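User: I'll paste a sequence; please echo it back and then give the predicted structure.

Assistant: Echoing your sequence first, then the prediction.
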Amino acid sequence: MKQLNKYQRLLVIVSCLIGSVALVYAINRDRFISGRILSCKQTETSATIIVQSDNPKQQKYSLASIGIDISTQIWKFGMKQEIVDLEVGQWVTVYFVGPVAESFPVQTNAKYIEINKDR
C-alpha cells in the first residue's frame, strides 16, 4: 500500500474537518443538547445516553434520553470515535435526527455527537 506524503495527509484531514462542519450546519441547529452524560447503556452497535444540559435557560431541552446507533457520527477533537468511547461524566454536544418525543426527559436519536473538553 502506498504511503501518503505530508501534503496528502493534510488534505485528508482538512477534507474530514470540512465534512464534519458541513454536517453540523446541515442539522437543524435548534435540535441539540449540550451537557454532561449522566448515564450510558451500551452494546457494540448501539447505546442510550442520558444528557443533562449545562445551561437549561439557554437551551430548549434540559434533559434528554438519546438513542445512538452505528450511523451516528461521534467526534472528539477532530478525531472519529466509536460508541464504546462514550462515558458517564463526559461533556458532549448532541445533534438530534428524526422525531423528538416531547416527554421528560425528551426522547430522540443522535445524528452527530461532539465529545467536548472536560470542564
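The first strand starts at residue 32 and ends at 42. The longest helix spans residues 6-26.
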